[in-house]
Amino acid sequence: MPRIVGVDLPKNKRIETALTYIFGIGPARSVEILKKSEVEPSVRAKDLSEEEVARISGVIQKEYRVEGDLRREVTQNIKRLTGIGCYRGLRHRRGLPTRGQRTHTNARTRKGPGRSVGGKR
After folding, report:
1. Which residues are paired to 54 by β-bridges?
2. Which of 16, 33, 78, 115 is deepest in the core (most CB within 10 A)?
């Protein structure tokens, strides 16, 4: 099981899919990283040599912000928005959608499970 940037990658998946288990790397960025490190995307993670793992992690550490650094940056951005009291910051504080979605119905992911109101007579 290869370990890249502090994350254990699943060994039976193709390396282009396995890299997406790292926070901050999606499918497109995964392919980009593999091109830069000159590794075949169809190789399984368990079949990578130590040198290939080193090349991949080198490219990731040099050129991309992932895992802890990226999580820290995102939380700092949210804290900054809530601190200055802007509209997006208020939406974060209240646990509501921040990007203009409707909330009369839907938005259950952000608002949590619906609370039933007592029956009307």
Report:
1. none
2. 33
Residue 76's DSSP bridge partners are none
Q: Which two tokens stand for residue 74?
A: 């995102």
CA 109 to mean position of chain CA atoms: 17
Half-sphere exposure of 98 (CA within 13 A, CB side): 13
Quote the pTM value.
0.81
Per-residue pLDDT of the chain (121 residues; tens, 9 = 90+): 788 888 999 989 999 999 999 999 999 999 999 999 999 999 999 999 999 999 999 999 999 999 889 999 999 999 999 999 999 999 999 999 999 999 998 999 999 998 888 777 7
